[in-house]
Amino acid sequence: MPRALAVTCKVICLLLIGVVGSLLSEKNDLQFLVLTFSVQFKSVTLGLLPLQAEPIRVVVTGAAGQIAYSLLFSIAKGDVFGKDQPIILILLDIPPMLPVLDGVVMELQDCALPLLREVIPTDKVEVGFKDIDAAILVGSMPRKEGMERKDLLKANVAIFKTQGQALDKYAKKTVKVLVVGNPANTNCLIASKSAPSIPKENFSCLTRLDHNRACSQVAMRCGVSSDKVKNVIIWGNHSSTQYPDVHHAKVNLSGSEVSAYDAVKNDAWLRGDFISTVQLRGAAVIKARKLSSAMSAAKAICDHMRDIWFGTKEGEFISMGVYAAGNSYGIPEDLIYSFPIQIKNKTWKVVDGLPINDFSRAKMDATAAELVEERDTAMDFLSQ
Amino acid sequence: IVLVTGAAGQIAYSLLFSIAKGDVFGKDQPIILLLLDITPMLPVLEGVVMELQDCALPLLREVIATDKEEVAFKDLDAAILVGSMPRKEGMERKDLLKANVAIFRSQGAALDKYAKKTVHVLVVGNPANTNCLIAAKSAPSIPKENFSCLTRLDHNRACSQVAMRCGVPATHVKNVIIWGNHSSTQYPDVHHCKVSMSSGELACFDAVKDDSWLKGDFIATVQQRGAAVIKARKLSSAMSAAKAICDHMRDIWSGTPKGEFISMGVYSTGNPYGVPEDLIYSFPVQIKDKAWKIVDSLAINDFSKSKMDATAAELMEERDTALAFLAA
């Protein structure tokens, strides 16, 4: 829309200039007017080419890694921020990965993508986070052989504290931050606490992958395509305590919308194997591929970010890990917890008033307890 | 119904998502994806199937993972042959050709036996041109025009190099040509290329204003880009290869824009540029109604002619070696 308006203004201005110019000139005849107008029309037509929205700055950390490799292409193609939104992509990783990053930059160039204005590889946070509009924090310390959960938390607290501070110092205050690197919820909380001048609502963590997996499991069970399943919810932590809840989910069966429990007709599965399948899917993929699930993670990241940017559809909600303060479901405050969410004007809101039965309550509490424990351990490290 | 071979590998991993999303065959075209790889890779293939399911893509009706040709090639509308024998340490060019002749003869025969006669086949696995020729010759009941090999990656790389030199987005560069073999003898030719600058549309040589670069380093950069990416990433260029495959297949399916041409390795018999017959050679091509046509009457100067001949010579040598194995 703004582009069309700008073009119209430009054409009108040039027409006026043409008319005024020909009136003021000595050769005050129709021929001159036509000539002037055609010259200006040509320049307007050609000037149409670069006339586009201002580029946004997007940083991806862990940019030399697997998930980023699947993700960067989709971002640069326009699948996340829109087909008319030019992008400046900043790729952040640790110094040993800089040569690999150069290879990634080469490949992005070779993809010949029109929206990609610039690609900046770096290992410096002051470059990585400068003036950014969106940050996707994929990089984190992976769990190594023999590592305890505590060690993993300690290492990641250090990383996300630094990145939170960098966001606070260099990024735009309107920046939207999506934390992917695990443990995602707690890393997100640490980053948010280390960036006090950025609203906590701008931070979220990824549970969309679990959400998509849950949709897909229900869809396959019902023999429909996964876009016919909606309003699945992932509650809690992006870990094996997550609770995939389909009590409010709907399935479109041959044109009529049916509740998931009625569509599947197998309560035992929905309360048992379905839940564990979704919870343990990540491990199943690693076991088969010998690598973690980059393709589907990248797809989920795109879905999550795109919904933040453009909003969710009327009557539909998706799952996101967000700051729990003020929630109406009795979840402890001061956590990043995955809720059912609707988004409008780049602002999310937890879907309120969904009835919660005892079965769901127990599971929601269990995952909250794990998050409280993680948070307390992490805050210990933070204060050191 | 679309088949991808080498489906457990790197390039396929970047490619399958784009296909299933609708970027190649259209946003309203449902797809049944067939994934073929060798038996040891079946567990990895299972993981890929899981991930495709987890992507929750509406157009993906079904995904079938298999190591059997009679399953993989059945009733195909499109086949993307990515899988090939990679060059191992100490392998001679001859050994590579011999191993791949076996693979592509078998797959050509399977296409002949099981696929629809209207199938479009894109060969990616290297040596792409010669593998494509072998497959076409092993599938006599499928028109040779339905076979092509990928030189779109080199084409995109050339566009990108010119674009960066001129400071414009890569989509402002068109009608670049890649002649010949998808190897280091390929000839990236910009004599007919146009660049859209803020001052208007210019011939490439006028836009770049550096003839020696265009005849020297530019060519070498595009020819060796693959090796440069491997050196940096320690892995070959899956992302950009997948993008090029999508571009190539999508242009076959939906046609090329008016006045623009792209590069594809196609059967050279009947070509207007004096390139030897019975090769798969990369030409400038326009596509309409799923049929390609070589862009003819482009002026060819001596500089271009010698480069076009050199890459043709390499292709003839490859073909003769391969055909010898085929007969054995």
Automatic annotation (TrEMBL), chain A:
Boundaries of each Lactate/malate dehydrogenase C-terminal domain copy? 207-381
Q: Where does NAD(+) bind?
A: D93, N156, V180, G181, N182
Check the record and name the InterPro entries matching this protein.
L-lactate/malate_DH, Lactate/malate_DH_C, Lactate/malate_DH_N, Lactate_DH/Glyco_Ohase_4_C, Malate_DH_AS, Malate_DH_NAD-dep_euk, Malate_DH_type2, NAD(P)-bd_dom_sf
- Which UniProt keywords are listed? NAD, Oxidoreductase, Signal, Tricarboxylic acid cycle
Answer yes or no on keyword NAD.
yes
Q: Which residues form the Lactate/malate dehydrogenase N-terminal domain?
A: 57-203
Provide the E.C. number(s) assigned to this enzyme: 1.1.1.37
Span of the signal peptide = 1-25
User: Matching Gene3D superfamilies, A to Z?
Assistant: Lactate dehydrogenase/glycoside hydrolase, family 4, C-terminal, NAD(P)-binding Rossmann-like Domain
Give the coiled coil ranges.
none
Q: Which residues are responsible for catalysis?
A: H238
Q: Name one Pfam family in it.
A: Ldh_1_C
Q: Which GO terms describe its biological process?
A: malate metabolic process; tricarboxylic acid cycle
In terms of superkingdom, the source organism counts as Eukaryota
* One Gene Ontology term of the molecular function aspect: L-malate dehydrogenase (NAD+) activity
| Functional note | Catalyzes the reduction of aromatic alpha-keto acids in the presence of NADH. Plays essential roles in the malate-aspartate shuttle and the tricarboxylic acid cycle, important in mitochondrial NADH supply for oxidative phosphorylation. Catalyzes the reduction of 2-oxoglutarate to 2-hydroxyglutarate, leading to elevated reactive oxygen species (ROS).
Q: Which family does it belong to?
A: Belongs to the LDH/MDH superfamily. MDH type 2 family.
State the protein's name: Malate dehydrogenase
From TrEMBL, chain B:
Q: Where does substrate bind?
A: R87, R93, N126, R157
Return one Gene Ontology term, BP aspect.
Answer: malate metabolic process
Domain of life of the native organism: Eukaryota
Query: Which reaction equations make up its catalytic activity?
Result: (S)-malate + NAD(+) = oxaloacetate + NADH + H(+); (S)-2-hydroxyglutarate + NAD(+) = 2-oxoglutarate + NADH + H(+)
Q: Print the keywords alphabetically.
A: NAD, Oxidoreductase, Tricarboxylic acid cycle
Q: Which residues does the UniProt record annotate as the domain Lactate/malate dehydrogenase N-terminal?
A: 2-147
Residues at the catalytic site: H182
- Asked whether the keyword NAD is assigned, the reply is yes
- The record lists NAD(+) as bound by D37, N100, V124, G125, N126
Lactate/malate dehydrogenase C-terminal domain mapped to chain residues: 151-325
> How would you classify this enzyme at the top EC level?
oxidoreductase
Q: Which EC numbers characterise this protein's activity in its record? A: 1.1.1.37
Q: Name one Pfam family in it.
A: Ldh_1_N
Give the GO molecular function terms.
L-malate dehydrogenase (NAD+) activity
> What's this protein's family per the entry?
Belongs to the LDH/MDH superfamily. MDH type 2 family.
Outline what the protein does: Catalyzes the reduction of aromatic alpha-keto acids in the presence of NADH. Plays essential roles in the malate-aspartate shuttle and the tricarboxylic acid cycle, important in mitochondrial NADH supply for oxidative phosphorylation. Catalyzes the reduction of 2-oxoglutarate to 2-hydroxyglutarate, leading to elevated reactive oxygen species (ROS).
Recorded hits in PANTHER family, A to Z, give: MALATE DEHYDROGENASE (PTHR23382)
Q: Please identify the protein, giving its name as recorded.
A: Malate dehydrogenase
Q: Which organism is it from?
A: Oryzias sinensis (Chinese medaka)
